[in-house]
Amino acid sequence: MTSLSTPAPDRAPTPVRTPPEGAHALVVGATGIAGSALIEQLVAAGWQTTGLSRRPVETAGVGHVAADLTSRDSLQQALGDLRPTHVFITAWSRQDTEAENIRVNGGMVRDLLAVLGPQGTLQHVTLVTGLKHYLGPFEAYGVGVLPDTPFLEDAERRPVENFYYAQEDELSAASAAHGFTWSVHRAHTVIGHAVGNAMNLASTVGAYAAVVRATGRPFVFPGSVSAWNSLVDLTDAVLLADHQLWAATTPAAADTAFNIVDGDQVRWRRLWPALAAHLGVEPQGPGDEPAPLEVQMADAATVWERVVAEHGLVEPDLTRVASWWHTDGDLGREGDMLADMTRSRLAGYTGYVSTERALLAVLDRYAAEGILPQPR
């Protein structure tokens, strides 16, 4: 029992998802936020694991293959003899237009499974997407009539181009052709540990705090008043990994799309001061107009050089720590942004994370590794 003097845990206990006999997991995008958390859980549970990524996977006991996901020939050369039983797709490639996103990212799923499917070993494939399934892609984000919140998995597709739809269609078609089961995992903003990721709110907020602390500026919330006051949920990367492993090993989850969020809801007006206190900066709420990080942090690269030198940090390239544009999008949404978890609950999934505690724990991990300064 947790006493009043003992800090509560960040999350409900994560079960060990024991691998089926002969299981071999391939994690596509193994060094990203979602992929690296998945690698850690697979290894801890005793799975034979291979990571596909541009950079080598540093986790001991994990095999590595490098391939160009946009080239079927490259995939065939790298994966032709791999014969995995379970594939976890956590990678995507951002393009200039949604038409290009569809061509490239839909093609990645199609070509990957066109190589692996005929090998005859695939049992289950998971695909990580996100709430842009309901909100629309970047170039049509939040435009038009949106589904009611909390978002339900059976909401009709929006009448706009969306590469998530293309990926789901390619996954379903490959399943029908090759006889494996599948699951789709629609995460909200994913909070976890990775360096060099283009969509990393945790390290971006930590870097933002380090820059404003070094320059004596306030820690200004970059989004709108509406975003400050509304309810939002987030997705912890460890929870997302567990959700995928649960679906991959649970017959009741086969051939189903699921939302996956922490299970609590937060308001930035409460969470932002908590982050500020943890990071040693002075919080300030939104003004009448948003103050995007891309504008606030125009001089950040020069300041970051000084922060790195002063604190002995290990990553001098700020672009590998902070993604201002993506965090501006995360913190600039209008109205409540919530996903319903009923479908998972009814199928037996019980994972739960405290968003605030997990986010502070990730920031502490970055500080312990010398990627962010130690909080004061």
From TrEMBL:
Species name: Sanguibacter inulinus
This protein's name: SDR family oxidoreductase
Region (Disordered): 1-22
Segments forming domain PRISE-like Rossmann-fold: 85-315
Family annotation (InterPro entries): NAD(P)-bd_dom_sf, PRISE-like_Rossmann-fold
Tree of life domain: Bacteria
